[in-house]
Structures are given as C-alpha cells and as structure tokens.
C-alpha cells in the first residue's frame, strides 16, 4: 500500500524501547477494558490465557518509568528508527486523516491516539500497567495508546505466509479500530453489557474484534487509490492466520467456540472484506445487530 510521505507534526508517536523510559501521564486508572489485538496464542498462550494476561495488566499498578529509554525520543527519531517504524508512522498519519474526516462529517469531536513502538521485552503503558511482548499488539483505552511490538511483524509474516506490508498495516488499522470504539463510547457500553450479562461476554468480545477488522478494511477502502496489487490477499491471509479456530488448531487444542475472543478465520476475513468493499464505517455496526 502506497502511504506516501507524512508530517510527524500530525502524529503522536513514541518508543518505550521494550519497557524503559515511557513518558507517563500520571493519575490514569487501570480499570478500563484493554483489548488484545491478535493471536498471542500462536506464541504459546491460549485464548483464555491471553485474556487473563490482559486482565492482570489492567489490575496491576503501573510502576514508575525507568529513565534513559526511548521515551525522550522525538517523533521524527522514532519514525526513522527502523523500516517498520517508518511504515507504522505513515499508517498512523493516514489513519488520523481518514478518521478525522469521518468524524468531522458527522460533527463529532475527534481525539487522536498515541502510537507506542517497541521491540521485545516488556512495555509499561501510561494507563494500563505493564505487559510482555507475548501479549501481542494491543490498545489501552485509559491512555488512548496503540502499543505494537514490531517483532510481532516478523512472527506475523511466518504465520500468514507473507511478508507483505498490508498484513502489517492491517494490524495497526485494527488497533486503531479499537481506538474508535473507545472514543465513541462503544467500548464502555460493551463492557457494561458484559458485566450485566456475563453469558454474552464472549459474543460481545468477538463482535468488538470483528468490528475492528471491519474498520481496518474501511480505512483501506477509503484510500483505495493507494492500494497495490496483492494487498487484499495479504490482508486476508493475515486475518485467516489469526482466527481463533486456526490458532487453536495450530496449538493442538480442541476448537471451542465458547473460548473464542476474536472470531474464526472465516469471520475475520469476511469482516475485513466487508469494510474494504463498502468504504463506509456504518456497515461495521452489523456485528452488534
């Protein structure tokens, strides 16, 4: 996908360098729902353990940031630190521009997320405590941060059988979808519904993830002129590789829909395609109907 040049003044990005030196906002509670991104199960964690890891991240108090890490790097320095970082910054700029336009159209206030790029080890968030890289990419609603361990991209290429850029862009666009759910209030509504009716908790969690997949496709659809040959296939291959059923099967586990957290491979592929082909974010509400 041809993202083109970007202006670092239009994005907020930082690097925690695997846990050290994260700039902290202070005073942000950790009780807000944290939504894991993709298939940490394939790295030795099953779906329910993944949710448990995320829950424990919510509950622990965030330690004070260590000094001397990447938190003091400028946006330009972070974005130029690696090819993955440059690509992620370009994607963030495009996602900001696309979603801001959508919100302005509907006369809704928009808040940009913060992108935190690190590689390996443990990351300390500003609002949701600490997490190891095994959790995979995730979004923290409390600090509106998208956290991506760029080493996950190498693992994703092995999982999906493709090293294409669109698979990686799908990851960040999916996490951005969780940001949209957060700032529109949907995430809070879903969490409240899960607490009122625990028997529907998994169904609602899956709906959240499929909607985020749909939002990722919608972003690409709204930038169709930048899509290159093979991008759709790369995205669908990534969506298929991180479906709950595929991950469970690959881990030698019995496929149990009651333990699904993100949807099957077929559901994730369909959600991504729905958003891309419709070019309209409102169609992504179908997962809650």
UniProtKB/TrEMBL annotation:
A GO cellular component annotation in the UniProt record: membrane
Region (Disordered): 1-21
Cell compartment(s), UniProt: Membrane
Keywords: Membrane, Transmembrane, Transmembrane helix
Membrane among keywords: yes
Membrane topology: Single-pass membrane protein
TM spans (from-to): 25-45
Name this protein carries in UniProt: Zinc metalloprotease
Organism: Erythrobacter sanguineus
């Amino acid at each position: 996908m041809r993202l083109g040049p970007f202006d670092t003044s239009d994005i907020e990005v930082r690097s925690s360098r695997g846990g050290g030196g994260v700039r902290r906002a202070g005073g942000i509670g950790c009780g807000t729902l944290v939504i894991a991104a993709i298939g940490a199960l394939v790295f030795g964690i099953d779906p329910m353990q993944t949710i448990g890891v995320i829950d424990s991240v919510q509950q622990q108090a965030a330690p004070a940031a260590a000094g001397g890490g990447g938190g003091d790097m400028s946006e330009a320095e972070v974005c130029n630190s690696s090819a993955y970082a440059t690509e992620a910054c370009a994607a963030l700029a495009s996602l900001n521009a696309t979603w801001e336009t959508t919100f302005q159209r509907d006369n809704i206030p928009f808040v940009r997320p913060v992108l935190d790029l690190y590689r390996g080890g443990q990351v300390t968030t500003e609002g949701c405590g600490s997490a190891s890289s095994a959790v995979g990419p995730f979004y923290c609603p409390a600090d509106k941060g998208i956290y991506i361990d760029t080493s996950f991209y190498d693992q994703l290429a092995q999982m999906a059988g493709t090293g294409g850029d669109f698979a990686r862009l799908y990851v960040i666009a999916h996490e951005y979808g969780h940001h949209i759910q957060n700032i529109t209030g949907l995430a809070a509504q879903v969490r409240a519904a899960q607490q009122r009716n625990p028997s529907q908790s998994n169904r609602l969690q899956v709906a959240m993830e499929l909607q985020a997949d749909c939002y990722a496709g919608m972003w690409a659809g709204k930038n169709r002129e930048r899509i290159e040959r093979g991008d759709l296939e790369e995205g669908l291959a990534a969506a298929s590789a991180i479906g709950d059923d595929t991950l469970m099967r690959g881990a030698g586990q019995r496929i149990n829909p009651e333990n699904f957290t993100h949807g099957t491979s077929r559901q994730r592929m369909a959600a991504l395609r729905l958003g891309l082909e419709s070019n309209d974010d409102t169609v992504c509400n179908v997962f809650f109907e």
